[in-house]
């Protein structure tokens, strides 16, 4: 039995909401499960609404995704290297949590930007 992505997303959202409500009724602080379930449902519905019956992946989108995440990885490595060198040379003094937070934000932001740029361009060739 094969289940499509739309049904899987709807089932995941409903299961999270159901588990969150049950655990909240039992006295646990499980509102985050309900919020996650609502987010899963909303994401599933919006993706279906935006794409309709088009295929979710094809060769072009796979290539764009691979190159976009590779560019994001390179930007993140460069930023981490800059933070490392600045810390070793004494220009800045940050703790591990701050350095990891900066790294996570840079990785996420550069991935979103690179994927958006490549999707807008429609191809990964830079020539």
From TrEMBL:
Key word Transmembrane present: yes
Family matches, as InterPro entries: MFS_trans_sf (IPR036259)
Membrane-crossing segments per the record: 7-24, 30-49, 70-92, 98-118
Keywords, sorted A to Z: Membrane, Transmembrane, Transmembrane helix
Protein name: DUF2178 domain-containing protein
């Amino acid at each position: 039995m094969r289940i499509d992505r739309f049904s899987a997303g709807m089932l995941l959202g409903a299961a999270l909401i159901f588990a969150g409500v049950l655990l909240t009724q039992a006295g646990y602080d499980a509102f985050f499960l309900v919020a996650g379930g609502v987010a899963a449902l909303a994401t599933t519905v919006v993706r279906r609404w935006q794409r309709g019956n088009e295929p979710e992946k094809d060769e072009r989108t796979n290539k764009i995704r691979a190159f976009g995440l590779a560019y994001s990885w390179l930007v993140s490595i460069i930023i981490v290297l800059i933070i490392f060198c600045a810390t070793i040379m004494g220009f800045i003094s940050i703790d591990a949590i701050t350095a990891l937070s900066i790294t996570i934000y840079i990785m996420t932001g550069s991935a979103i930007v690179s994927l958006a740029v490549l999707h807008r361009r429609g191809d990964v060739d830079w020539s």
